[in-house]
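Risk register update: the risk of archive-format incompatibility is retired. Evidence:
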Amino acid sequence: MNAELTYHAERVIRKLPSRPGYKLVLMENSEDNIVLRDGKVEKMLRATSLSLAVNLYLDGRDGFFYTNDLRPDSVEGFIRQAYETTRLLEPDESRTLADPERYYRGGGPDLRNFDASLSERGSGDKLSLVQEIAAEAEGSDRRIISMQTRYADRQHRAHYLISNGFDGSEQSSYCTLTSIVTVEGTGGQHPMDGWGESRLFFSQMPRSGIARTALRRTLSKIGQRPAPGGRYRMILESPCAGSFLQPILSAMNGQALQQKASFLLGRLGTQVVSPLVSIVDDPLIPGTRGASLFDYDGVATQRRELFTEGCLQTYFIDTPTGRKLGMAPTTQGIHHLIMQQGGKSKEEVTAESDKAILVTDFNGGNCDPVTGDFSYGIEGFLIERGIVTQPVSGMNVTGNMLDVWKRLSQTCNDADPWEAELIPTLVFEDVAFGGC
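Archived output:
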């Protein structure tokens, strides 16, 4: 990446009146997307973008601006206009750059999270992989209505330049493969489900199993109907367990706290969920999704405990929010989240469940950020005496986030190590389910 573009923008800013503070981020993204539907290529797209994000800090004012026109003359005009716009903003003394003592200063590990070959490989190699994956299931069952197989990859490079002493670069990449299958069901239903895998490097991508798994999951949904309403053990499958954790993570956000729109306000240092909840954010593990040496503010990342045996250990507080709250800044958010796992598999906890609903997907719904009360539509399976007795849809799971998370009784051992959030299948006791 040509970092000279960032230095050119810096030289322009230094010529401005009042010499504002600044944060410059030059970003280069390269992406490939391939979609195969029913054996035919539906889309092949290769895109590369180069953009410049500019924060200007002037007398308590913070303006954010963004451009894709990086011709030197255009950048100069863009920045001068951004400066004039920033002068019109209302002052907010909390809007400052991070303390330079917190900046990343080098010496971190090689994160091994960038595949340079992604942009060098021809689209033919990637299309061949998609066709190979799709061929496993295409035409294998007469009930298949449609099958779509998708490939996507992304390379990200960025150069950061901050006026009070930060100059750094980062890069990362990932690839994903997903199959989505629709089949002929009963009673006019057309069940649909899918399966996907992600990796950091193209050479790591699985070459089998994805489409077969997607088809198997879809066929298992035939005959979906609501189960009787009531209270059940809830077995929350790993791929969607992260969605159920998101309201908790959102409630830890400093802006939500500052706006008093968080059900975790004032709960720092107290036990708020089950003692089985121990979660860390560790951005410094090489070869993992989300690994990073510094955040968007240039602040050095570190291993950080979020929950220890159910006790809330931290909030996500950036510099401006910290000033408003009178609290020390921590970090903007998570990078590579790891939840402590248990020893049993999803199959084992299912077999030992007398009356349960295995939730495999959420279909809409919401959670009140102030109270934590939630209602989500679900799909899954009814479990009776350890046996799957019917596929389930047309039901809601309801309750309060903190109350339900206190009912966590087991964590399984199946978190996907290739994801940015490693969350296993979770087991909650006595959860309310009802019809939509």
